[in-house]
Amino acid sequence: MSDLVARTGRHQQRYEDGYRLLAGCIPFKYRNIGQNCGEASEKKVEVLMINSTSGPGLLFPKGGWETDETAEAAAIREAMEEAGVRGDLVHFLGYYAFKSKTVQEECSPEGLCKAAMYALHVNEVLESWPEKNLRERSWLTIPEAIESCRHVWMRDALEKGFLEWHRDGMVYTIPRKEYC
After folding, report:
1. Domain that holds residue 168
2. How far apart are CA 129 and CA 83, in angstroms?
3. What number is the average pLDDT over the span 19-31?
4. Predicted pLDDT of residue 152
């Protein structure tokens, strides 16, 4: 149960060249479309977004990358804390720099941030998670997510990172099953 508690504070926060370092992910899953026995089925990619606690629009889970963890561990932790999902990191999407409108601090006086973003294939959706009372989850198609994304840098991570890696598009055809 100890892993269902959110970390707080910034005493272990990483900084590099005036940037506060963050880690996050684009959680995704495949939803089956048309599963008739003996016919080919398709799987549609959906991504998970969460509401912002400070205004309109949706976000991908992200947060501080701390000195006692890797970027990968931080991304997995943030997915569990903010979105209540667990899964496997399957691809590094890149680093995305942006300026925080709310966080200017001694180590990053300009509010500069750089986020390491990953694709996280979701294999568990938790009923209870640390920020459940603050967050609502939404599974969206890629076009819906692009439209709903609150921050330009997150939209870039989706369009230039996730979609370029997931080049096949948003729908996959699965060969028909011989046995049902």
Report:
1. 15-174
2. 8
3. 95
4. 95
In this predicted structure, what is the pLDDT of residue 149?
Answer: 94
Structural domain tally of the chain?
1
Which 8-state DSSP code applies to residue 66?
B
Give the sign of the dihedral formed by CA 82, CA 83, CA 89, CA 92: negative
Percent of the chain with pLDDT over 70: 76
Which residue from 75, 73, 36 is spatially nearest to 157, judged by alpha carbons?
75
Q: Quick one: pLDDT band at residue 111, thresholds 50, 70, 90?
A: confident
Does residue 7 lie within any of the structural domains? no
Please indicate, yes or no, if residue 33 is contained in any of the structural domains: yes
What does the alpha-carbon distance between residue 50 and residue 64 come to, in Å, rounded to a whole number? 17
**How many degrees, rounded to 5, is the angle at CA 27 between CA 37 and CA 132?**
110
Cβ proximity of 96 and 155 under 8 Å: no
Flag whether 2 is in a domain.
no
- CATH number of the domain to which 76 belongs: 3.90.79.10
> Would you say residue 48 lies in a domain?
yes
Amino acid 133 reads N
CA 180 to chain centre: 34
User: Is residue 163 over pLDDT 60?
Assistant: yes
Assigned token pair, 89: 């990191």
Q: Looking at the predicted structure, is the pLDDT value of residue 174 above 80?
A: no
